[in-house]
Amino acid sequence: MSQLTESINQMVALTSEEREIIEKAYKTVHIPKGAFWVEQGKRCKEVGFVVSGKLRFYYHDEDGNEITCYFITEGQFMSSFTSFLTNAPARENVVTIEDTELRVINQEELEALSVLVPKMHVFRRINAENLFISMEKRVNMLQSQSAFERYEKMLHESPDIILSVPLQYTASFLGITPQHLSRIRKELTK
Predict the structure, then answer these.
(1) Does residue 134 contact residue 126 with C-beta atoms inside 8 Å?
(2) Full set of structural domains in the chain with CATH
(3) Among candidates 100, 96, 104, which has minimal Cα distance to 77?
(4) Which of 3, 68, 79, 162 is an S-S bond match for 172, by CB 3.0 to 4.6 Å?
């Protein structure tokens, strides 16, 4: 079983026939470090599953600053979901932080797959619920925790991100300046 079907199988039990159908429906894409998978203002046409690599979701605020929303790592599904579901231009950019391998499927193919494998409807609902929960946790974190608490939580929950992405991306994700993050890091090493 591939990473893709193993991940789906963790949420909905798949038969070997269903796994085979799913594997055939997704295509493999290799994206080099620093390349865009989704660009702000363009329509997102696919959902992707990260086989290897890391990506960063970010947008530009009214002052032109990059605001990091999420990091996506191996074993996660991703898309600019609002763009994908509504055919509207994406509000964010999705760029690779390192060489990345994705398994992707477009909307038409995903709908056809969901007819062939009805369990995909359940999987898509569960995935959407998990995305909503993640977004709710992020908003709560930004509104209720200090910068120090947010960094400690990230250090505990996602040390691989902190070790592998540039400081300015981590600071932006935490809602602070790189200088503030440097002070927090110094404070923790005392």
Answers:
(1) no
(2) 3-116 (2.60.120.10)
(3) 104
(4) 68
